[in-house]
Amino acid sequence: MSPAGKAVSAYAWHFVPAVALVGLVCELFYVKTGFGKYVSLAWGFLIALDIILKPLENHLRTWTNPPSLALLPIIPLYLLSLAAGIATVTEPAIGVHEAHSMAIIVGFGGALFMVPGLHLLAHRRDVTSILLTDVASVLISYPHFTESHENHHREVGTPKDNATARVGESFYKYFERSFFGGLAKAATPSFLSLTSPVYALESMRLPIKLLLVPVAYGFIAFIGGSPAVIFLALTSIIAIVVIELTNFVQHYGLISNDRENAMHPRAWDSPSLVSNVLLLGLPSHDAHHREPSELDGHEQLKGERRFLPTSILLMYALPLFPPVWQYVMDPRVAEVMKSGNYQDDNSTVTL
């Protein structure tokens, strides 16, 4: 096979989320109703495949750094799915139940395929990626996503990180601290810099996005009325919950007093094939939080990776039931704690 052919073969799976979003848009435009049962069946089928199938490979660079060509269509396609959903719920023949069901389908299905692309685009500094990231974050009512994620990367695995859940912390308590605390932490330096006689244009980015959120809702209300506003609000809530669930699941309890120790895991990995294809490598998350110098030549890090007990697609549901989540994950966190000095919500624990 030619080098070009190998490149296409290696990255072809990165287009799966885009293809899935195209299917979602077509379904919304042409079927409009009766879609929920197919979503439920497809979701169960994907989880079963993810549990059964073994990963193609299991190394530290698995599924990382997809090409921009695979990422750029995802946000526009998500926006198209929102437009299709709004066009559907504002039709006179659509009842309240059907409209709410449509919002759940678009919110969950769209977020599942959009959030990984949004996450990877947030790390890129070209104008197109920045614009797409900001537009998407405004339309999901998470204007501080990029700023919070940058703080998360600087502080991951430390008590300062809002996006790392503490041992024994419920998802609901975590959500308040992560989403609203992340907004406060992201907004403070931006607004303080505006009082300076000299400030960078970058400082205006978050205030502008915060202003654009009500503007977006006003525009949606103008073109679609209250059904469109409710639709956008529901899809936004679902997308935000998916983002926060992802951080909760992937970083739960991994707070270290020795942040610079490369042997300490940064995240819980899930190397299952299907979820890594659908989520653009997001489940293989530990490597994402490491510098290239940490990965090169450190074969022993393979043995230090920590894994979720099953598919991340299934693990997404467990935090909604805190006793179940803690029953499954707290023993795993305790096992990690035995390898060094780790810190929980309020105290340092050395086991």
Account of the 3D structure:
With 351 residues, the chain is mainly α. 62% of the residues lie in helices and 3% in strands. It is built from 15 helices and four strands. The strands form two sheets. A two-stranded parallel ribbon has the order 1-2. A two-stranded antiparallel ribbon has the order 3-4. Helix 8 (145-155) packs across helix 9 (171-194) and helix 9 (171-194) packs antiparallel against helix 10 (205-251). It is globular.
The poorly predicted ranges are: 4-11, 58-63, 292-301, 343-351
Mean pLDDT across residues: 76
Taken in chain order, the helices and strands follow as HHHHHHHHHHEHHHEHHEE
Instruction: Write down how many β-strands occur, each being a DSSP E stretch of 2 or more residues.
Output: 4
- Structural class call reads mainly alpha
Q: How do the strands line up in the largest sheet?
A: 1-2
Major sheet summary line? 2 strands, parallel
Helix content: 55-70%
- Output the number of helix runs: 15
β-strand percent reads under 5%
Radius of gyration: 21 Å
Distance between the termini: 52 Å
Overall shape: globular
